[in-house]
Design brief:
globular
Length: about 300
Amino acid sequence: MQDFSDRLAVITGGGTGMGRALARQLAEQGCSVAMCDISEEDMAESIAIAEKTATQGVKLTGFRADVADEARIEAFRDDALARHESDHVHLLFNNAGIGGGGSFVAGPRGQWERTFNVCWQGVYNNTRAFLPALMAADEAHIVNTSSVNGFWASLGPDTPHTAYSAAKFAVKGFTEALVSDLALNAPHVKASVVMPGHIGTPIALNSMREFAGDPENAPLGGEEAQEAIARAQQFAESGLSAEDAAAIILDGVKQERWRILVGEDAHFIDAAVRQSPERAYDRDFWEKEVQPQFATLSETVTASRKG
């Protein structure tokens, strides 16, 4: 799919981050967009931003839906097709995600399952719901966002990271299996798995908002809360920008690449894990190989963003 003009794209998690950037860039290239998110306010802002540079004739719509809720996703599908007056969809970006559920052993079960269900079940629900519409198009592409944590389940040896990593491994495996499945049963539909490194998005802030009312979580207070918010804000303002990440993803789709690594840190970690898979979770692997290189790359990218 070399040209996105006069196409229809569906984006989950379109209210912030990479979802917002994808919507803006697609609209600029003449592609109409149906997005969902749990925040109507964030979606309205994304649509307003995209409309500023959208090509004439592009239509942008939003629908409030929790991707982990199959009934709401089916309602989202029906709304998208009705409002865009179409029986087909050309692009599906399964982008929505949250963080949380770090420890399977010591963390609250509710947070673990919520994180897993958004990051994995959301991909399943949307792919299942929109597959007939994708198959009805002359050509179509499913783009599933995994992560570097889809091939390396770690944030370092001192931080458990199980729910998010398990979900992202599932997304990666599902997408890779779809490549052959679609080639056999719907060859005009392609699939790509996206594996970003550190992208400067509000995912940490959104995750804090997601779990703020969870009774299983001890509420943060005082300095602890301020420190957590500061870390989340720093994450959003550092790393590769969401706009740069979206551009890499869309280029990968145009090139029909089934595997799209986003960011130099993603390329480095992928190579390091492939070279030493048995050492991937050893402390010295993190301290001597990953952490120094990751820190250097992160500082370089952050500096370039600010410059």
